[in-house]
Design brief:
This protein is an all-alpha fold and 299 residues long. The chain has 13 helices and four strands. Strand 1 and strand 2 form a beta hairpin.
């Protein structure tokens, strides 16, 4: 269900498919286009009409190159299909890792190699080696089949809506930076606790859907209720790192806010710079603040 403002604003829908909601603009004519109407360009995507105009203006050399390489590749065809391929890829990778974790013999070894603990970032305080990549590898590991299944179900449901609206690169950046935010929050609020799971990244997607929905005038009450319930549940069920949920949600909301405020083509550089700045800020925070907290606790 949407608000009247949402339904009345045609900029929130694909100009070729008025019933399809989208958040992506053609980088040439700046009209809103759905996943089916998107064609990758040097920067962003373009609509079918702009693509047709571009083909008319191709040089003879460009036409020969297209004939030589067989025209559009299967990859481009997949992109134009509107399928959330990044969502499916993340699900596939995470599921493979999750199933390997259940295998006797290698499962425990794999989990130990991927799980996150803040002390892997600060070897001066522990016996663990310095392994900063665990900030992200933990996002792809899980604590059991139910844990894996619930997170993958949430990723599939959220990705169906968000990836076509944001575009594939933005969606992937949102997912990974939200997962990073979840790990940073664990390092800040629960140093010494081992964590695994995509929950931080998933909460980032939920928060982003809330921000994007609010921006385009959709009714976000249901999303807000679901986000709140899932967050509160983390306080009452043991073994759930609510810190990762909090960090992922806050970072996901921040990244989504940046995306909603930098939609125009002339703002694209700022969009990249600001999102990169969020990731750098998280790394700076996790590099300096937790050691100060750990020192104050154990001094």
């Amino acid at each position: 269900m949407t608000t009247p403002e949402f339904a009345d604003n045609r900029d929130n829908f694909c100009y070729r498919h008025p019933d399809r909601q989208s958040f992506v603009l053609c980088q040439r004519c700046l009209r809103t286009i759905c996943g089916e109407c998107q064609t990758p360009a040097a920067v962003g995507v373009i609509c079918p009409e702009c693509m047709k105009e571009e083909r008319k203006n191709r040089t003879p050399a460009q036409k020969r190159a297209e004939r030589r390489w067989g025209g559009r590749s299967s990859t481009m065809a997949a992109v134009r299909s509107g399928n959330p391929v990044v969502t499916y890829a993340l699900m596939l990778i995470t599921t493979i890792i999750g199933l390997l974790q259940l295998a006797p013999g290698i499962g425990e070894v794999l989990t130990d190699a991927l799980r996150f603990n803040a002390f892997f970032l600060y070897p001066q305080f522990s016996i663990f080696p310095f392994e900063p990549w665990r900030l992200l590898t933990a996002v792809f590991a899980h604590g059991g089949f139910i844990h894996l299944a619930l997170n993958m179900l949430a990723l599939w449901m959220l990705g169906q809506s968000l990836e076509p609206m944001l575009g594939r690169v933005r969606f992937l950046a949102l997912y990974l930076i939200s997962g990073l935010g979840g790990s940073v929050a664990v390092a800040l609020l629960a140093p010494g606790v081992f964590t695994v799971g995509a929950s931080g990244a998933v909460f980032g997607l939920m928060a982003a859907l809330l921000i994007v929905g609010r921006h385009i005038g959709a009714n976000v009450t249901g999303i807000l209720v679901i986000l709140g319930i899932n967050f509160v549940v983390g306080f009452f069920i043991g073994g759930i790192a609510w810190q990762a949920h909090l960090g992922g949600a806050l970072v996901g909301a921040l990244v989504a806010f940046i995306l909603t405020r930098t939609r125009r083509r002339d703002q694209r550089v700022w969009q990249i710079v600001l999102i990169a700045a969020v990731a750098v800020a998280l790394l700076v925070i996790v590099a300096f603040i937790p050691p100060l907290l750990i020192t104050s606790i154990y001094s």
